[in-house]
UniProtKB/TrEMBL annotation, chain A:
InterPro entries: HTH_dom_conjug_TS-like. This is Helix-turn-helix conjugative transposon-like domain-containing protein. It comes from [Anoxybacillus] calidus. It holds the Pfam family HTH_16. It comes from the Bacteria. Residues 16-61 form the Helix-turn-helix conjugative transposon-like domain.
Automatic annotation (TrEMBL), chain B:
One of its GO terms (biological process) is DNA-templated transcription initiation. One of its GO terms (molecular function) is DNA binding. The chain crosses the membrane at residues 65-86. CDD domains: Sigma70_r4 (cd06171). Keywords: Membrane, Transmembrane, Transmembrane helix. This is RNA polymerase sigma factor (Sigma-70 family). It holds the Pfam family Sigma70_r4_2. It comes from the Bacteria. Residues 144-193 form the RNA polymerase sigma factor 70 region 4 type domain.
Length: 82, 206
């Protein structure tokens, strides 16, 4: 699933189908979050959360993730600094 | 970790890398990444054949892996905090703009306005059920009670309307569709009957 996510998020910037797949993947977590509010408000919350999800997914910078060598340098630097 | 099928030079290289990057390889993310056999093979390949191509392949594979973890964590916390904030906002609104009917009455915290509303359309009202219009239910004195029982149905009806409901003779006459004089006569007769009954018994004590 983790490997799949990378492709999906990249794809979702222009493909709505991919976006939908991602939202569905997070559905269980979303459902759990609904228990945080009043029973009568849950439908509203679900809608709002989905809206936010779309915002977050499309706004996420895929290339901000450090690569293998980048992370190695980061950890090395942290070690040297401390 | 599987080092089989590699030449000595390669094993040496790996040992060197391990020594140099101890902390990096201890990192839980790197650790779990290299646990995957495919990734481990890629990693060995890079150490033994450090070409740009191999490096990039490993880099890409790792990026996918790391991205998945980071993204999932990000979305999960985002969902959680958004839900919490939503609930906060909802409570705030509820507090600020209470519905008039739900507002607690000034001093009594437990009673809200909606408890005080009566339904004028309702066919059954509680007062009607509580309030009996039979004069027998209002009498405590046993002698007077017996006196009432001796009256005819007609007399009792008039007495009821006059003293329980508090209607005048004219009003009663309209209700019963009789003349006012007839009602007056019936009422007086009833009272007289009661009076005679009590006199006969002679037991009323006040």
């Amino acid at each position: 699933m983790f490997v799949m996510l990378y492709e999906l998020v990249k794809e979702s910037k222009k493909n709505v189908k991919a976006l939908e797949t991602i939202i569905n993947l997070f559905e269980p977590k979303l459902r759990k979050s609904l228990t945080l509010t009043n029973y009568s408000e849950r439908e509203d919350l679900a809608q709002e959360l989905k809206c936010k999800l779309i915002m977050y997914i499309q706004g996420y910078d895929v290339d901000s993730t450090p690569g293998f060598w980048e992370l190695k340098d980061q950890i090395q630097n942290r070690k040297n600094a401390s | 970790m599987n080092l089989k099928g590699l030449d000595n030079l390669c094993i040496q290289e790996i040992e060197i890398f391990k020594k140099q990057n101890k902390e990096f390889l201890e990192n839980p993310i790197i650790k779990s990444f290299l646990k995957n056999e495919k990734n481990w093979k890629l990693f060995l390949e890079v150490i033994c054949n450090p070409t740009d191509e191999n490096k990039e392949l490993l880099d890409k594979e790792f990026k996918k892996f790391y991205f998945g973890i980071r993204f999932t964590a990000f979305i999960s916390t985002a969902l959680y905090f958004n839900a919490v904030n939503f609930d906060k906002r909802y409570r705030k609104m509820l507090n600020r703009y209470t519905l008039t009917v739900d507002k607690p009455l000034k001093e009594e915290e437990d009673i809200s306005f909606k408890d005080m509303i009566t339904d004028s359309e309702a066919e059954i009202q509680i007062e009607w059920i509580i309030q009996s219009d039979d004069i027998k239910d209002y009498i405590a004195d046993p002698v007077l009670y017996e006196a009432i029982l001796t009256l005819s149905d007609k007399q009792r009806e008039v007495i009821n309307l006059a003293y329980v409901k508090g209607l005048s003779d004219t009003e009663i006459s309209k209700v019963l569709n009789k003349s006012q004089q007839a009602i007056s006569k019936t009422r007086k007769k009833a009272l007289k009957n009661i009076y005679n009954f009590i006199n006969e018994k002679g037991e009323i004590k006040k």
